[in-house]
Amino acid sequence: MKIVVIGGSGLIGTKLVSRLRQKGHEVVAASPNSGVNTITGEGLADALAGAQVVVDVANSPSFEDRAVLEFFQTSGRNLLAAEAAAGVKHHVALSVVGSDRLPDSGYLRAKIAQENLIKASKIPYTILRSTQFFEFASAIAQSGHRQANGSVVTCPYTARLVSDDVAAALADVAVDEPLNGTVELAGPRTDTSRRTRPTILERNPGLTDGDHRRPRALLRHRS
Question: What are the distances in angstroms from CA 195 to CA 20, 78, 95, 145, 201?
Fold first, then answer.
């Protein structure tokens, strides 16, 4: 099966590409570095030719509210149009647990806009919503600390995962039948950022699997 991973050179993308290739699939790791740009449309038609599945794990280079919304809307429209032209049978996208419950976050509003584009398209799809990764825990804690004098604290609850769990779940979803719905992936324990932040910031910020006990990921389907 030919599978195209959009954002294939990033943290999740590289691990997903490796897992899918180990399963014997033909995998294209698509990113601007490989000549595939979902914003300009460059290289999309060639990359998607003959593909049965596309997995979108690309992320915005800017988290500013307007920029991130423009990224996910433009990228989503261009990608879905190219998939329709190529006859792609399954679109898989990585999103964030709780996106629809935190409207004050510009990033999460942009992820909802991306999800709505997917749902409105005629391409069969599966959306995998994940909680935050251990690898990003330090940045999340720092972000919450910087905003402590404001009215919003970023990501107050996180049932954290390691990125390998996310890549493994995406690899399973990609080769399964489209759900035309959403599944959620989370770690087994919910931590508050207030409780987690001091522990994280006292440790080496370069988190590895050895820094924390790796959780068993929990996957649930949302109707």
Answer: 37, 41, 25, 12, 11
Question: Can you tell me the distance from the alpha carbon of 103 to that of 18, in angstroms, rounded to the nearest whole number?
Answer: 35
Q: Would you call 77 helix, strand, or coil by DSSP?
A: helix
Sequence ranges of the domains in the chain: 2-132+163-187+216-222
Strand order in the sheet with 90-96: 26-30, 2-6, 53-56, 90-96, 125-130, 181-186, 218-222
Instruction: Quote the CA–CA distance of 59 and 96 in Å, as a whole number.
Output: 12
Query: CB atoms < 10 A from the CB of 208, how many?
Result: 10
At 25-45, the pLDDT tens digits run: 999 999 999 999 999 999 999
Count CB-CB contacts under 10 A for residue 164.
17
Q: What is the CATH number of domain 2-132+163-187+216-222?
A: 3.40.50.720
State pLDDT tens for residues 128-182. 998 876 544 444 444 443 434 443 334 444 555 778 989 999 999 999 999 999 9
pTM: 0.79
SS3 assignment for 137-170: HHHHHHHHHHCCCCCCCCCCEECCECHHHHHHHH
